[in-house]
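User: Hi! I'm working on a homework problem where we have to compare a predicted structure to a textbook description. Could you give me the structure for the chain below?
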Amino acid sequence: MFPKKIALLISFLLISIVSTSQTQNSSKTFLYQGRIDKLQNDQVILIGTASSVSFNFIGNECSIALQSVDSYEHHNYVQLVLDGKYIGKIRIEKGDVQTFPIKVTSNKKEHRLEIYKNTEAQSGNILFAGTTAKLTTISFKKKKKIEFIGDSITCGAASDPSDIPCDKGEYMDHHNSYYAYGPRLSRAIGVDYLMSCVSGIGMYRNWNDENKDEAIMPDVYQNLYLTKDPSKPKYDFAFQPDIISIALGTNDFSGGDGKKERLPFNPEKYVSNYINFIKMLYNHNPNVQIVITNSPMVGGEKGGVFEDCLNKVKNAFANDKAHKAIQIFKFKPMTPKGCSGHPDVADHKVLADEYAPFLKSLLHEK
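Assistant: Happy to help. Predicted structure tokens:
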């Protein structure tokens, strides 16, 4: 019933249909959200952070089929929500498609299972290859929408050492996208969300690269897979958010690893790239409200320079009557408690609690 070899995936990708908005399959039994690649037979590639597939079913059990797929074989993770309750994450080992049993303990006649990609696009992709569930129709309410563009902080990377300690395992072992500040606050204020984030990435340079060997966010954003790979589909901009939140700068201001050559921060290049990036976003999302943020990880003298840069970006659009005025949000300084200097899950709750009222007010919610 399910494909057993990654080689088969290639044939599926040749007939894939790109989709990045909240969509259903033709029988309205599956709901897809986030950066995903729709294949045939209701199979999808979960690409971006917290991208998801959901379905309703009857009965007290079913199984789901998943596969970790990438240019090299390694494990990956998804997180599961059953009947609105978070039930944890499961590890998908490298190799063939694997099946995972889902058991229901409640007495409800109909159940909903939501499957969220726990890791980011750069940690590899996950194939949802189907389910044995007795499916029923799934419906969704039209909600306001927020897109979160950012780096590892936005992705919820290095935030969760609960299963594997920070000094053990691999980078993807410590992700927790479901409890990252963007998805968390979106659930709290009742909006749909899209995550477009990449660890280590910046607006004009990355954490340990001067835009020589690695792509920056303006290079990869318009690719569905957040990569420069020309064989991958283009991003279709179908989501059309009410708000786009941009949190990029932590890596631009970073000193790198202290070994590789690192040039002084270039405010002119940062501001110029930021302005051009926003112009691109406006071109595809003409009615959007853009919010640009500082970083809770950048303080002191750098924090002052950061704030000055954001003000320059905002002021560059001061006479733009075609779009809503750019807003700036300032996170409070934070001493992160996660892995390798990142916020942990509890820190993300703090960030979400800070940011949610601001975004909610922009959406004119009561």
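For your comparison, note the following. Helices lie at 6-13, 152-155, 181-189, 217-220, 267-284, 300-315, 345-362. The CA atoms of residues 29 and 44 lie 14 Å apart. Good luck with the assignment!
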